[in-house]
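2024-03-11 09:14:02 INFO worker-7 job=invfold-0412 stage=load source=structure_tokens
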């Protein structure tokens, strides 16, 4: 089965810097979540590459990254964030990701100056965090593209 997902696309030009950065980040977040949605067990946690990377683990990891950079919540073992436990479900991991994104977006919306330190402080700046999160999420969205295509042939953003 080969399916192609349609999406809303990236943000339009003309917005403020914060709106543009947050818009691209949301666009990528949506793409990652869409790659995982609808993938059944056990395929959603099946490693598609020798490193063990799997779709569910990518979303779990990105949840922790969102919480670290925007909410200041520490993670003691970053490798563990890539490995979903047997009890974690697709719906649960996606709900956790969406919750982290909503909380992060509230932090972004409250930021009046991108040069100020992000919540994890004292550095880096919110601008740096937004750009890094775009890079981090885009990188993992690419991984998710490949893993999803290996599972069922689905392509597209």
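2024-03-11 09:14:09 INFO worker-7 stage=emit residues=157
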């Amino acid at each position: 089965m080969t399916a192609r997902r349609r999406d809303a696309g990236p943000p339009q030009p003309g917005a403020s810097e914060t709106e543009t950065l947050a818009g691209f980040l949301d666009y990528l977040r949506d793409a990652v979540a869409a790659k995982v949605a609808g993938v059944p067990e056990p395929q959603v946690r099946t490693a598609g590459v020798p490193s063990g990377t799997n779709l569910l683990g990518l979303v779990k990891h990105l949840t922790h990254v969102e919480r670290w950079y925007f909410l200041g919540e520490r993670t003691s073992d970053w490798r563990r964030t890539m490995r979903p436990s047997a009890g974690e479900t697709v719906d649960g991991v996606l709900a956790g990701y969406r919750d982290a994104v909503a909380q992060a977006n509230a932090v972004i919306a409250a930021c009046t100056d991108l040069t100020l330190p992000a919540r994890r402080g004292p550095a880096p700046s919110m601008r740096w965090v937004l750009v890094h999160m775009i890079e981090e999420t885009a990188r993992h969205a690419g991984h998710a593209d490949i893993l999803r295509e290996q599972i069922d042939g689905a392509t597209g953003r």
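2024-03-11 09:14:09 INFO worker-7 stage=report msg="The radius of gyration is 16 Å."
2024-03-11 09:14:10 INFO worker-7 job finished
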